[in-house]
Amino acid sequence: MNTRDLERELGKLSVNPHRYNLEGLQPDASEGLVLVREGTNWLVRHFERGSWYTLQTCESEADACASLLKYASEPFYRS
After folding, report:
1. What is the C-alpha to C-alpha distance for residues 41 and 66, in angstroms, rounded to an integer?
2. What is the full DSSP assignment across 6-71?
3. CA-CA distances (angstroms) from residue 75 to 2, 25, 32, 36?
4. Mean pLDDT for each 10-residue chunk of the chain (79 residues)?
């Protein structure tokens, strides 16, 4: 899975697009998930009211996308 595939899957799950960003930027909402490429690693991060938390560090885009999808499957991200 790559970021384009991930975006389609997030849409199928009706994840609020304001609650995630796949380009490493702050999401539009005050809390949300962010996928960041940092060197050779991919980070799945959570942004919450000005603070960043790294949830997982992955070596591949596919693993990071799968991880973010798992977190985004929680009902909180659909609102």
Report:
1. 14
2. HHHHHHHTT--GGGEESSSSPPSSSEEEEEEEETTEEEEEEEETTEEEEEEEESSHHHHHHHHHHH
3. 23, 22, 12, 22
4. 97 96 94 96 96 97 98 89
Q: The tokens of 3 are what?
A: 């970021």
Closest residue by Cα to residue 69 from 25, 27, 77? 77
Beta strands, E only, 39-79: 41-48, 51-58
Residues 35/68, Cβ–Cβ less than 8 Å:
yes
Order the strands of the 31-38 sheet from edge to edge: 20-21, 31-38, 41-48, 51-58
pLDDT in the model for residue 79: 75
pTM of the model: 0.93
